[in-house]
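Methods — Computational structure assignment.
A single polypeptide chain was analysed. Its primary sequence is given first, followed by the predicted tertiary structure written as structure tokens.
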Amino acid sequence: MSQDAEQLDSSGADATFRLATALTDQGEYAEAEPLLRQALAAAENEHGPEHSRVCECLVWLAKLLRSVGRYEEAEACGRRAVEVFDKPGRSMSLRRQALGNLAPVLIEQQKYAEAEEIARRALAISEVEPGPEHRMLADSLNTLAYLFMMRGRYVEAESLFRRALAIKAENFGESHDEVMVALDNLAVALHHLGRYAESEPLHRRALKISEELLGPYHPDTAVVLNHLGVVLGDRGRYDEAEPTLRRALGVFEKTVGLDHPNPIVTAGHLINVLVRQGRQAEAEPMAVSSVAACEKRFGASSPRTASALHNAGVVYSAQGKYVEAENYLRRALEVRTKAGGPEHADTLVSLDALASLDERRGRDAGAESSYRDVLAKRERVLGPGHPDVATTASRLADLCSRDGRHAEAEALFRRALAIREKVFGQDHPFTAETLEGLAKVCEQTGRADEAKEFVTRAKRIRAQNAQA
């Protein structure tokens, strides 16, 4: 082959690689995959298995496979890259790329210990080269932060996400897809910390960037829509949350298919919103289907499957189908305890739901014991001002009120009220709910004037929200 022919082949391979990466960024995964595999084969044939272009192809192929939920294949690509390129004498950049590519795949498969070790190695390389303010450092920070978030270490995750966002904004400006991802990640961490008022505007900024740069039908846009829908649901704005989540599902259906991990998770969030609106009959078939889809797609021991089991349990509990509810909720608790430990935020969600089920079944002693355990752990894990603390405190207060322990009930209701006023505002239905609980305690203790004041305020809130 002549030198000109060799240059032409090389140029063609480069063009294939560039097109494949562009299609991957656009979410055109079905078109991108064969081109990436073609570019990988060309790089191996032309340059050998240890050339830098081979590493780039493996990294992008693993990224694509992770994006479509084919984690085992993505892991195989990632491990191959690490085996070849994470060696003494190889460039720091290649080593960081290989390590940084494998860690997110391991996180998705709940291989957290190995993922953290690899993510920290990638971060250590990034701190040295290419410098403290480079985008590669931001990628390494983001991966480690994501790991912390999955393990319930939200405060640590927030700090790293903020640092990654600052670096991305410095390198790319405020309107870039990488800044969009950083904004969305930080917003998710803030949501987990119960700081909904801070989380929502960040999600909306991320959504605006994604729609403008990637378009309204890109899978990354759907990811942001999903996160925004969850926050809206947790803020009690169900009329906004439902269409947002349905829109995300529509985009996922067109781009990656409904058996992809992302739409399966989004469907679970939609089920949760329907249940909160009292639409259990509508939610039930969706919840059962979601369990089956998760078990098939992720396996019985996946945290995603646990979320589907939990949602189904909540649906059945609200319908009075207590045997079915307990079966689902206990299965969810078992998976979550094994995956995250006895004090992970998701484990506490399951314990709280089981306590609520006990209360519905008239097992007040068991419910109270569980509520007290969950309350203490939520205060320790999430902080005393988290909205989930208010939820458990309010439920425990109801039990105490019915049992005639009015002083303790009032203290718990007032605690819940202070949290809800701060998180949701003084005119929110969740605040009205707590005011109504306080009113009952005041009536029970002969304080009619105080009770009337709380009732009047709660009615005003209800009326305002009914008109909105």
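Note: The longest helix spans residues 3-25.
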